[in-house]
Amino acid sequence: MPRKKRDVKSILLKKGFEQINKSSDHDEFWLVVDGKKTSITTKISFSGDNEISDSLLALMKREMNFDSKRNFNRYFDCDMKRDEYIAYLKERHVIS
User: Fold this and answer.
1) Using an 8 Å Cβ cutoff, are 47 and 25 in contact?
2) Residue 55: φ, ψ to 5°
3) Around Cβ 70, how many Cβ atoms within 10 Å?
4) How many CA atoms lie within 13 A of 90 on its CB side?
5) In contact, 75 and 66? CB cutoff 8 Å
6) What is the pTM of this model?
7) Of 3, 29, 36, 32, which is closest to residue 16 (Cα–Cα)?
8) Is the model more confident about 70 or about 45?
């Protein structure tokens, strides 16, 4: 199910991602934990309509190191809090 770009961006920012614009055609987001950038990044394109397609959401799922669509949706439906996401990444040895 496509999601609105503004909603996705807002959730990322509320849950510890910082926006860093490195290119002219995408918003880039880095997860910051304890004041340090992690290896977790994702992008949202400026172009196109106001929604992110299912295929691009699948790419974001992979970039954010989710192992299932269910967990990815829990994150963006706000059923997974920031601390739970960080614990999830640590448990999977994605971040330390």
Assistant:
1) yes
2) -65, -35
3) 10
4) 8
5) yes
6) 0.91
7) 32
8) 70
